Q: What sequence folds into this?
């Protein structure tokens, strides 16, 4: 699933059989209001690997091995908080669960556009790019 701008990233199917030990997310905060959805998600698994799920400037979905970012200030545009338990998202319900399935979906021009991660209980989390933002749904 190669994106022309960002490359192919890492193979997310490597998550299958691994337990989600921690979930770190980044959130944009402006005028005291936190964004409705996270900007980035890092899944830290039972092997100690950190998988980043985020969106690219060309509206592709980026999946790569990367450690969580540090919080940062954007001046008049607010700041970005990074951490665990900062806001609600579907992956929080699956901490301690093992990934059962991973499916990728791609567009011929932009590469990966959607990722679905399934768990043993049948729940599936979809990560995709919606209007340039990361969207996580169940």
A:
């Amino acid at each position: 699933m190669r994106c022309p701008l960002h490359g192919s990233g890492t193979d997310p199917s490597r998550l299958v059989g691994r337990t989600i030990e921690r979930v770190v997310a980044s959130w944009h905060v402006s005028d005291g209001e936190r964004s409705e959805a996270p900007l980035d998600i890092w899944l830290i698994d039972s092997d100690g690997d950190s998988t980043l799920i985020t969106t690219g400037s060309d509206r592709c979905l980026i999946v790569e091995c990367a450690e969580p970012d540090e919080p940062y200030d954007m001046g008049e545009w607010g700041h970005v908080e990074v951490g665990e338990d900062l806001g609600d998202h579907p992956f929080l319900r699956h901490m301690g669960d093992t990934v059962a399935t991973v499916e990728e979906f791609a567009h011929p021009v932009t590469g990966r556009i959607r990722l679905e991660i399934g768990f043993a209980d049948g729940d599936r989390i979809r990560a995709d790019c919606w209007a340039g933002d990361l969207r996580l749904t169940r």
